[in-house]
Amino acid sequence: MTEYMKLLCEAPEKFADNVALVDRGGSRKTDYKTWGDLMFRTAAWIHQKNLPERSFIPVRFESSMEFAAAVCGVWIAGHAA
Questions:
Q1: H helices within 1-81, ranges in order?
Q2: Residue 23 pairs with which residues in a beta bridge?
Q3: Are the CB atoms for 74 and 57 separated by under 8 Å?
């Protein structure tokens, strides 16, 4: 696991109550715990699909916390977004 991925996976626990992302024009703040939960749920869902290693998984959302969590979840699952 690369250093970046290690830090990404540790951040939700290490910084749980800190703000991870601000979106919707600054009107929504998401803490690391909430963001990490969605990120890891996304990775788990992708693992269940039994895709070939390093598959390309397109992610299409507005720029948002959900978009960031989905892309990171794809990376954690070992694929490219």
A1: 3-14, 32-48, 65-76
A2: 28
A3: yes
